[in-house]
TrEMBL record:
Belongs to the glycosyltransferase GT106 family. The keyword Membrane applies. One of its GO terms (biological process) is fucose metabolic process. Residues 1-22 are annotated as: Disordered. The chain crosses the membrane at residues 62-84. PANTHER family: O-FUCOSYLTRANSFERASE 9, O-FUCOSYLTRANSFERASE FAMILY PROTEIN. This is O-fucosyltransferase family protein. Keywords: Carbohydrate metabolism, Fucose metabolism, Glycosyltransferase, Membrane, Transferase, Transmembrane, Transmembrane helix. One of its GO terms (molecular function) is glycosyltransferase activity.
Length: 571
């Protein structure tokens, strides 16, 4: 739910991407009608007819029956799906610019920056009370609730060897590994240490042992699932010493446990070994509790990073804490997805003009050959922005955090890949948060040298520093925040301590150069409060345990004291 808008100065409330118009029986359909700071012109017969139908239905008493239809129609009209020319009548830009079609955040920043400066070096320390303890329940890890702590005294005889291929980046690999553990437990199979596919996007040649602690992984699962580093030589000889000769079962995405028992298990018993490649998202979210427990055990306990990653990550966390002396050792971490490929894939436009367009066209063609040039494909950057699908720029992230109440004394850790035009887009963020750090500032060039060229290992460093921050900010979705949010819930008594902004509201706020500072702050502080109330969430049948570990991996402890200062170091 969206909170009530407190915007003033004629700015339309960003509570919902719909036009609201007064009922007027004498409306001239050939004219334009106005909503907030937008003007919509009905230009063709289809638009006029649609408006007549909606108006007629709205005047009837049965309007409530048609509420869903009205909502969907409003959304479609607003987003431009029916070709409406939604134009601004004020607020900058050149001429009548469709809402969201122009990147106006720099104009908003130019107006609000003097007011932000006036609040610099404030006495209030938001990081000491950013999360309201009255809204929280206390949950504790209790994997033993679904998986016996001791497991089997002796594992039953294996039905064969399971070989899987994990693809994607760090957390996509993590998902594949833990699902493989669950499937191995389901089939009573011996799991071979997963093979990492060299992904064309990530281009990381790291093996399992380069990223995760292989010995600890085998040890932690020893009483539940048998894990081996490689196939026995006699069995490999049966397949001409070539793993590729082992039958590859093409398992559909989100397959049920029943499918594995009926289709995969017979082949496993018959051949002695089966291979499933690729193995990303190959197990359904809803599985029996004991199998779900294996996922919990793998993700939150058995999978820890390799020693070189753990050692450097621990140093980086300690350095970040020391640099956060003005906020009692607490800091904010933010995951910024503003790399060139992310900007290109989003099809959003910023303020780079023709040069930016040319660079994005090249990037799209390089990574997704022809996908964005298919016949009939229409790209609407403005609609993408208003729908909250555009990556937030570092400038927008900074304005959002300052509006929420984090001042220039806040220590900020930025987890990111290579930011697109970093010098241009990072400068205003550093201006708002001079105590800004990243892995490149917390670790020396010599310390980072063994990790360079290995995106998953670098992501593991970011993951760890973000895990121990007082507040984590996610800006674009993806596996990194999904896994991190779940891990933070597991670590912090069920509360994610995560700020997940409403990007549709943000799009309208950043599209309003005339907005007042107090109205801007009011909206963002409401957004922060909403993130706090949504910090404790439970897994639904269709959602991932890796993001929502309750109640499968955690149990409620109503009278346990808050342990915010007693953080278990999992690095």
């Amino acid at each position: 739910m969206h909170g009530l808008s407190r915007l003033g100065n004629g700015v339309s409330p960003p509570s919902s991407p719909r036009f609201r118009h007064a009922r007027n029986k004498n409306t001239d359909l050939s004219a334009s009608f106005t909503s907030g700071n937008c003007q919509v012109k009905l230009q063709n017969f289809a638009e006029k007819l649609g408006f007549m139908i909606v108006s007629a239905v709205y005047r009837r008493r049965g309007v409530l029956l048609f509420a869903p239809l009205l909502y969907i129609s409003g959304m479609l009209l607003y987003m431009g799906a029916l070709g409406f020319d939604a134009s601004r009548t004020s607020g900058g830009g050149t001429g009548l610019d469709p809402i969201g079609s122009v990147y106006r955040s720099p104009q908003v920043f130019e107006k609000l920056w003097p007011l932000m400066e006036a609040e610099n070096n404030g006495s209030s320390n938001l990081l000491t009370n950013v999360w309201n303890p009255k809204l929280h329940q206390v949950w504790k890890p209790c994997i033993a609730h679904t998986v016996s702590q001791e497991g089997f005294a002796e594992l039953p005889k294996s039905n064969g060897y399971l070989i899987i291929e994990a693809n994607g980046g760090l957390n996509q690999q993590r998902l594949s590994i833990c699902d493989a553990v669950a499937v191995a437990g389901l089939l009573n199979a011996t799991l071979v240490i997963p093979i990492f596919h060299l992904n064309s996007v990530w281009r990381d040649s790291s093996k399992f042992c380069d990223i995760f602690d292989e010995d600890f992984f085998i040890y932690a699962l020893r009483n539940h699932v048998k894990v081996v580093r490689e196939l026995p030589k006699e069995l490999l000889l049966k397949f001409d010493n070539n793993i590729s000769s082992i039958v590859n079962l093409r398992v559909k995405a989100w397959s049920s446990p029943t499918y594995y028992l009926l289709k995969v298990l017979p082949k496993l018993k018959e051949l002695g070994a089966v291979r499933i490649a690729p193995f990303s998202n190959r197990l359904a979210h809803s599985v029996p509790p004991n199998i779900q427990g294996l996922r919990c055990l793998c993700n939150f306990e058995a999978l820890r990073f390799s020693e070189p990653i753990r050692m450097l990550a621990a140093k980086m966390v300690d350095r970040m804490v020391k640099k956060s002396s003005k906020t009692s050792g607490r800091y904010v971490s933010v995951h910024i997805r503003f790399e060139e490929d992310m900007v290109a894939f989003s099809c959003c436009t910023y303020d780079g003009g023709e040069e930016e367009k040319h660079e994005m066209d090249i990037a799209r063609e390089r990574s997704w050959r022809g996908k964005f040039r298919r016949r009939g494909r229409v790209i609407r950057p403005g609609a993408n922005r208003v729908d909250g699908k555009c990556p937030l720029t570092p400038l927008e992230v900074g304005m959002m955090l300052r509006g929420m109440g984090f001042d220039n004394n806040t220590s900020l850790y930025v987890a990111a890949g290579k930011i697109y035009k970093a010098e241009k887009y990072m400068t205003p963020l550093k201006q708002m948060f001079p105590r800004l750090e990243s892995k490149d500032t917390l670790a020396s060039t010599e310390e980072l040298a063994p990790f360079e060229g290995h995106s998953s290992r670098l992501a593991a460093l970011d993951y760890t520093v973000c895990l121990y921050s007082e507040a984590f900010v996610t800006t674009q979705g993806g596996n990194f925040p999904h896994f991190l949010v779940g891990h933070r819930r597991y670590l912090y008594e069920g509360h994610a301590k995560t700020i997940k902004p409403d990007k549709r509201k943000l799009a309208l706020l950043f599209d309003s150069p005339d907005i007042r500072w107090n109205d801007f702050k009011s909206q963002l502080q409401d957004m922060l409060h909403h993130s706090d109330t949504k910090g404790v969430e439970f897994k639904k049948p269709s959602s991932s345990l890796y993001t929502f570990p309750m109640p499968d991996c955690m149990c409620k402890h109503a009278d346990v004291k808050s342990a915010s200062g007693n953080r278990r170091r999992l690095v």
